[in-house]
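Make up an example, fold above all:
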Amino acid sequence: MRIGTISGTVVGLAILLALLAGGYFAFRYTVNVFGALERQTEILAAIAAVTALLCAWIVADGVKSVGTRQAHSREAMLRAKLYEELLYLCREKRALDAELAKPECALALHGGAKVVAAYAKFRGAEKATEDAALLNDLLMEMRTDIGRPQIATDGPAPLSGLLRKQG
C-alpha cells in the first residue's frame, strides 16, 4: 500500500474515534443532567426532547421536499416552453429542417421518453390523414409530461384541431 493510503486510513480512524468519544461524553453528560432531576421531571424532559427532535426532523424533511419540488417545477417549465415552441413549428407539417433543428435537439435533451417517441412517429408520418391523430397523441404526451391533467377526447383528434394552420 502507498503511504498516502495508509496515512489517510489512520487519519480517518482517528476522526472516527474522536467522534465516538464525543458521542459517548455527550450521552454521559445528558444522562447526568437527567439524573439530577426528579423522576416525573425526568420523564417530562425526555418526552420533550424526543418531541423536539421529531419536530426538527419533520421540518427538515419538509424543507428538503420543497427544494425538490422547486427543481421539478423549473424542469417542467423548461419542458413546457420547449413543447410550445415545437408545437408552433409543427403547425406546418413540412417546416424547414433548419427551423426544427434547435427544438429537436432540445427535445432530445430535455423531453420525456414518451414525448420523444410520439414526436418521432409524428415526424415520420407520410399521410396527412395520420397527422391529426399523431399530433393529438403528441399533445397528450406533452401534457402528461409537464404535469397537466388529461382531458376528455371526443372524436379522433380534438386537440390537434386547436393547432390547425390559420388562413
